[in-house]
């Protein structure tokens, strides 16, 4: 990216040389060089396969903490309609017994049963939403496995919502913009009639920043990292104890792991 | 030929005026939806497809059912269907147009609908559904236009149309099969994920469509000088009888698999439909009504005395049509979402704008059927004169 910009500036500089006087050229190139020096871009965070580990015990201990939801929804301009019908959610809490309906049994530890578990898009290796999308507006990024969304190509058919076994997708039933509490200018707002979901903060990763939810969690319940890197934090957590995933029998290979 | 649709008596124009009024109301409601978004409907985060998609699914069946007159006539040379084949094809044309309109009004971003062709995704069943529906519409428009044109000139239809007609037969099967696959390939929705969904769709189509065609023939006999004759109507009634019997059998097969295996993910949807779940039971009376209508219609249809009598045949056909409309147009789509993957039982009921828009779409279909049938009957009358 930075190489491209440098090359662009070089070409722009040469063009200026051809048309403008020497002194003007000197001033322009000096300006451009200054502005690139002023904000050195932090290198993007990259991975072969991004994954998240959620430590349910820590969430349980934290009570009804909603830091991850609040942070995510704030930086992504997720509207708050104040009613469940129009609701849009990227990361939110659901009771354990609903998140892991297959794991639910009568004598499940009482505290766990109704405990709030953060749920989000699982960024599956084999995502059904990508398979069904008729326009390719949702797709899996080959480089790091993030399931992406193009809000400008989405026709609003909601086939992906029907196909997602995790209820991770929301639809803009009405114009979301008036319901954004505090506008975050760094992130685009959406229009009505398109689907949206968590994208593992790909826009933050590109700027070298950690996920908003991970950053906001004081209890260190959320860990994000490269699943393919044996030395990564997520791999260390998965090595140290048993972790479960949501509905593994469906073969979607979700990449959000829950440590118990 | 088209000018025939513009000639008619007071009753004809009165009916057209009623339809235009319904369409206009639907259009006004659509403008409101277009301005506000789909939030104007009863749909929600948990139930994301509702009345529109259900009507689409039901009408694909009505469209596909044309094959039940085309196949015997062209493949088995069953002459008695000669007079009504064109009625079946026109019904298919109108139904497919309604299907497409229902899809259109269900889109969140209708102006982007061309993205389906600009960025074709052959892995998505929706892509294939667009192809099969569009193709079926083109086939039926061509076939009906060419055959009726030839009939008007009292000449045999050109030879090239025969392979086109033969192609339309498997194509009709394909439209409902692909529509079923749209649902039955989703692991997230156990209610839909059943291998007999496509056969079930076809059985219900081959009973509801011909039942509607019988009703249309009887209406035409009553209000126009066109008489399809008793033989094709009785043959259609037999088709309705066996297709309906197979349809009911398929539903029982589904119930057995879900209830005897007792897998909660599978049983909960049926529980919602017939008994209610977590105190939510809006569809329960409808579904029991559908079941009663299905059994009642079978009694009337299997008994030769009631099948042959016009009055009881009308009742039976209305019962078949209503039973399947409830099953597909109300129960089939939303129940896939109830309960949700997170076990939320969120109910859905269509809102007034949603119903007005739907009525408008049905108005468009009826207008098309009226105009097309008028053309067909005028051609026939000219020939008879």
Could you explain the architecture of this structure?
The complex is a heterodimer of chains A (260) and B (385). With 260 residues, chain A is of the alpha+beta class. Chain A is 33% helix and 14% strand. Chain A has helices at residues 2-19, 22-38, 56-61, 67-75, 96-99, 110-113, 128-132, 159-163, 202-205, 212-216, 233-240; strands at 50-55, 91-95, 116-120, 138-140, 147-149, 170-171, 195-196, 222-226, 243-244, 256-259. In chain A, strands 8-1-10-9 form a four-stranded mixed beta sheet. Chain A has a two-stranded antiparallel sheet with strand order 2-3. A two-stranded antiparallel sheet of chain A has the order 4-5. In chain A, 39% of the residues are buried. Chain B is an all-alpha fold and 385 residues long. Chain B has helices at 10-36, 51-64, 67-75, 85-106, 115-118, 125-152, 161-184, 197-223, 230-261, 264-274, 284-302, 304-308, 310-334, 352-384. In chain B, α2 (51-64) packs across α13, α4 (85-106) packs antiparallel against α14 (352-384) and α9 (230-261) crosses α11 (284-302).
Which structural traits does this protein have?
A: 260 residues, alpha+beta, four-stranded mixed sheet, two-stranded antiparallel sheet, globular, B: 385 residues, mainly alpha, 14 helices, 0% strand
Q: Quick summary of this structure?
A:
Chain A has 260 residues and is of the alpha+beta class. Helices cover 33% and strands 14% of the residues of chain A. The relative contact order of chain A is 0.21.
Whole-Å distance between the termini of chain B?
A: 16 Å
Radius of gyration of chain B (Å): 21 Å
Placed side by side, the strands forming the largest sheet of chain A appear as 8-1-10-9
Most extensive protein-chain contact, per-chain counts = A-B, 48 and 44 residues
- The rounded distance between the terminal residues' Cα atoms of chain A is 41 Å
Poorly predicted runs of chain B are none
H/E topology pattern of chain B: HHHHHHHHHHHHHH
The biggest beta sheet of chain B is recorded as: none
The helix fraction of chain A, in percent, is 25-40%
Structural class of chain A, by secondary structure, is alpha+beta
Task: Determine the number of helices of chain A (DSSP H or I, runs of at least 4 residues).
Answer: 11
Total count of strands of chain B: 0
Mean pLDDT of chain A: 88
Which secondary-structure class do the elements of chain B indicate?
mainly alpha
Strand content of chain B: under 5%
Per DSSP, the total helix count of chain B is 14
Q: Would you report the number of β strands of chain A? A: 10
Mass-distribution shape of chain B: globular
Average of per-residue pLDDT values of chain B: 95
The H-and-E topology of chain A, N to C, reads as: HHEHHEHHEHEEHEEHHEHEE
């Amino acid at each position: 990216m930075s190489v491209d910009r440098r090359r662009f500036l070089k070409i722009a500089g040469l063009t200026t040389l051809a048309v403008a006087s020497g002194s003007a050229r000197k001033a322009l190139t000096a300006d451009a060089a200054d502005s690139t020096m002023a904000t050195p871009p932090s290198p993007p965070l990259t991975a072969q396969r991004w994954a998240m580990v959620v430590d349910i015990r820590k969430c349980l201990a934290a009570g009804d903490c909603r830091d991850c939801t609040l942070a995510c929804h704030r930086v992504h301009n997720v509207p708050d309609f104040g009613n469940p019908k129009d609701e849009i959610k990227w990361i939110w809490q659901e009771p354990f017994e609903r998140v892991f309906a297959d794991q639910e049994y009568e004598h499940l530890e009482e505290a766990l049963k109704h405990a709030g578990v953060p749920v989000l898009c699982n960024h599956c290796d084999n995502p059904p939403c990508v398979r069904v999308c008729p326009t390719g507006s949702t797709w899996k990024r080959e480089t790091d496995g993030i399931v992406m969304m193009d809000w400008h190509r989405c026709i609003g058919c909601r086939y992906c919502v029907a196909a997602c076994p995790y209820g991770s997708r929301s639809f803009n039933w009405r114009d979301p913009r008036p319901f954004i509490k505090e506008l975050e200018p760094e992130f685009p707002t959406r229009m009505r009639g398109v689907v949206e979901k968590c994208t593992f903060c790909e826009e933050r990763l590109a700027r070298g920043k950690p996920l908003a939810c991970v950053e906001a969690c004081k209890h260190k319940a959320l860990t994000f990292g490269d699943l393919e890197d044996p030395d990564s934090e997520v791999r260390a957590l998965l090595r140290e104890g048993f972790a479960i995933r949501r509905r593994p029998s469906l073969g979607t290979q979700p990449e959000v792991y829950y440590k118990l | 030929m088209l000018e025939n649709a513009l000639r008619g008596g007071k009753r004809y124009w009165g009916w057209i005026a009623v339809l235009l009024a319904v369409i206009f109301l639907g259009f006004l409601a659509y403008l409101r939806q277009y301005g506000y978004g789909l939030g104007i409907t009863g749909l929600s985060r948990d139930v994301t497809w509702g009345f529109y998609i259900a009507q689409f699914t039901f009408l694909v069946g009505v469209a596909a059912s044309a094959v039940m007159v085309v196949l015997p006539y062209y493949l088995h040379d069953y002459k008695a269907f000669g007079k009504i084949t064109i009625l079946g094809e026109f019904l298919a044309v109108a139904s497919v147009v309604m299907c497409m309109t229902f899809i259109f009004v269900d889109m969140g971003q209708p102006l982007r609908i061309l993205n389906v062709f600009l960025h074709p995704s052959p892995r998505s069943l929706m892509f294939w559904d667009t192809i099969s529906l569009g193709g079926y519409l083109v086939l039926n428009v061509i076939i009906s236009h060419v055959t009726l044109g030839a009939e008007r000139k009292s000449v045999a239809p050109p030879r090239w149309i025969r392979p086109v007609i033969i192609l339309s037969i498997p194509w009709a099967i394909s439209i409902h099969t692909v529509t079923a696959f749209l649902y039955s390939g989703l692991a997230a929705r156990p209610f839909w994920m059943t291998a007999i969904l496509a056969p079930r769709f076809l059985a219900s189509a081959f009973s509801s469509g011909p039942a509607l065609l019988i009703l249309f023939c009887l209406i035409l006999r009553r209000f126009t000088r066109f008489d399809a004759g008793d033989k094709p109507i009785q043959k259609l009634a037999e088709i309705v009888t066996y297709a309906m019997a197979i349809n009911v059998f398929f539903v029982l097969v589904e119930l057995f698999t879900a209830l005897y295996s007792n897998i909660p993910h599978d049983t909960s949807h049926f529980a919602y439909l017939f008994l209610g779940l977590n105190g939510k039971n809006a569809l329960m009376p409808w579904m029991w009504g559908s079941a009663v209508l299905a059994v009642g219609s079978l009694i009337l249809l299997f008994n030769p005395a009631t099948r042959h009598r016009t009055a009881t045949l009308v009742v039976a056909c209305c019962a078949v049509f209503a039973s399947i409309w409830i099953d597909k147009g109300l129960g089939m789509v939303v129940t896939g979402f109830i309960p949700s993957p997170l076990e939320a039982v969120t109910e859905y009921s269509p809102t007034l704008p949603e119903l007005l828009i739907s009525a408008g779409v049905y108005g468009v279909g009826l207008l098309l059927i009226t105009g097309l049938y008028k053309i067909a009957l005028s051609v026939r009358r000219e020939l008879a004169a």
